Prior knowledge:
The structure holds 2 protein chains of 2 kinds. Chain A is mainly α. Chain A has 2 domains: 251 residues, Orthogonal Bundle (ABC transporter involved in vitamin B12 uptake, BtuC), CATH 1.10.3470; 27 residues, no CATH class. Chain A is built from 14 helices and 4 strands. In chain A, strand 2 and strand 3 form a beta hairpin. The C terminus of chain A is likely disordered. Chain B is globular. The N terminus of chain B is likely disordered. In chain B, helix 5 packs across helix 6. Chain B has 2 domains: 199 residues, Response regulator (Rossmann fold, 3-Layer(aba) Sandwich), CATH 3.40.50; 161 residues, 3-Layer(aba) Sandwich (Rossmann fold), CATH 3.40.50.2300. In chain B, helix 9 links the parallel strand 10 and strand 11. In chain B, the strands form 3 sheets. Chain B has a 7-stranded mixed β-sheet with strand order 8-7-9-10-11-15-16, sandwiched between helices. Chain B starts with a helix and ends in a 12-residue tail after the last helix. Chains A and B meet through helix 2, strand 4, helix 12, helix 13 and helix 14 of A and helix 1, helix 2, strand 3, helix 3 and helix 4 of B.
Amino acid sequence: MHTEIRTSLNERLADTARRGNRRDVTTAAVLMALAVLYPLLGTTFQLQLLTSGLITGMVAMSFSLLAGFGGMVSLAQMAFYGMAAYVVGIGGHDMGLPALLTVPLAVLSAAVLAGLFGLIAVRSSGIYFLIMTLALLQMFFGVAMQWQSVTGGYNGVAGIQAPEVAGFSLGDAAPLYLVTVIVAAASYLGLRWLLRTPFGLTLQGIRDRPERMRALGFRVQLHRWLLMVLSGVIAGLAGVLGVYYHGVVSPDVAGLTASLIVVLSALVGGVSSLVGGLIGGILVTVLISVVSYLMQQWFGTSHYWTVVGLIFVVVVKNFPNGIFGVDARTRRVLERVLTRWTGAGSGDGARAPAGNGTSPQTR
Amino acid sequence: MRVTTRVTAAIAGCGMALGMVSSPLMAQDKEPIRIGVMASLSGAFAQMGADGVDGVKLAVEEFGGEINGRPVKLFIEDSAMDPSVAVEKTRALVNRDGAQVVLGPLSGAAGLAVKKGAGEFPDATIIVAGSAAEDITMRGVAPNVFRTSYTGAQPTFPLGDYAYDQGYRKVAIVAEDYAFPYAQVGGFMKTFCARGGSVPKKIWVPIGTSDYSSAVAQIPPDVDALFVALGGTDAVNFIRQMDDFGLLDQMDILGGTVTVDGTQLASIGPLMEGVVSGSIMSGQLENDAYKSLDRKFGELRGRPPSLFVENYYRAAKWALLALEDVDGNVEDQEALRKELLQTSFQAPGSFVSFDRYHNVVPDVYLNRVEKVNGEWRNVPIRTYSRVSQFWTFDPEQYQAAPAYDRDTPSCP
């Protein structure tokens, strides 16, 4: 009797996992198809807004990577973004180097900067880590502002031309959008894969019980440092896309507003999920744009930050783990809905009682 | 279940939001003329930006809200002093709202970014209404970018000239550390040093500094005067602290274009008595355009119009006059730009026209702070008419020189 139940339970769990994977692949394929086909329907501005959202989302994803999987809340992500952007700007625009050279160099520089910051920051944790990264962000801002002969100071580098890819200029909205979608998706898939490897599982172990992991012989600092470098690479990729998108880079990229928008995006999307960062970036970017537009059109006022702030309060209050976070309630409901949808095709398998598969799996 | 509803609502809301972004063209008898306005409406420069928007609205009102039967529709966005944001907002105004004329932005770096990216907007004319970065109308002219306000150096060329006339030979400088003050200082030094004056010390402070004790301590005691190119509350704080240190009475003060505006005079008028500054505006102008703007803005906000009200009013009026001349045919951008370049009129500040680099040629006033009828005001003591962005220098040589920054020019 017991064994019977256990086998059937095991089968059902395996079945759920298979379905889960199938579901993920289907969702991903549908989303990608929609995203890639969107330029056929959307206006130039919508594409530009989505591009901007995805770029912010990538930085938010790099934030979530550190915060959600390494327990390190970093405000310095925009410094890595800015580093890559400046390298593209200075190398491509001021020195006339080809994009084939500046882009890898930019991502590398972002990684190196993240490595340097990491050397200093990974020794601290919690609030001290946060303050440390804030200080490092301010240092980057200061250097960008003060080292005028190289960075252009307050004005930064303007008029940066985007390169051509397969005959399409990235200065146009649709090609840049498509490239951004591809880079964002590839980064997401890469990170997702990495987090399921032993390395990724070790990271999560370190996040939850650093002392125990140390006792088990894992090199905690090294893992943290590597994660920091990895987040620098992702933020650097975003920086390359961002500088081609804006055509300008100035110290403001490492300003507090820009950094807080990243943190808000990650929070709205859910810090403990990678895709949450991407979706959060899009949501926040669209939200800010729409609220600022509507406040002008309806009320003739520019106090859109107040409204945006109120919306964030509501979101954070109702979705403490973000819209896509592993919130028990959300998860339960989503699972029930999704099981019903995907289960409908596979006949009686759909009778699995909903609501009990919510034991904490990844936290 | 409640949560599902919320999630669905969130997703639907997002979809709706995207839908709303592409607001459909309003069906009206006549297609409106769409004018985008970009100003810094949040942060430290929010008040100046709001003043600018008021200025635009007053100009549109003056034309009855329409040109040749076509209603003028305004779209307003916040460029937030950030060049990246300014580029995004220009895209929003042009690509989303269909703006054919964009007025703004206000800050220097933002204006520069928009100018350098202006090739992206072949079907829109951008009229820079506040940004004073020289290279917007220099070292390369964009066919669809005009500037109606002034370059940073334009109003301070005469100030350097005046300072030398006053017998000053050594002047120290306190200025904010960004492009606009660089140009203001540059203009001043260009004329002052050309005549033989020297600037032994330049003290650059970050925007929004509240404690100036270290800056004050660096002022050499042997200078004849101090040129203060600070704006907004920075100027107020600095002057107050100069007074606290007892240095204010020992030194003559020269002011930049935004150092001595109505707002500063309202709070520290008595401390600023006698300060001479260079501007394209003044508190006491006799022309009808100024009086009319003064009256209308006074009715609206109960105070005299600031420099930013005038700048944006002027930009809007300039655009509307040119639009009137092309019978409201804003779609023919070529014709509009050609007409714009030829239009000249009496703006509240002074009579204005364009040079061939798309930059305004205004009068520059040197104003001294005096008490008029119990109120502290900027009273013009000298007028330099028709000041070019190159002063009296040769345009080619001027543009060949490096752009102003912390160390350029230099004459210690």
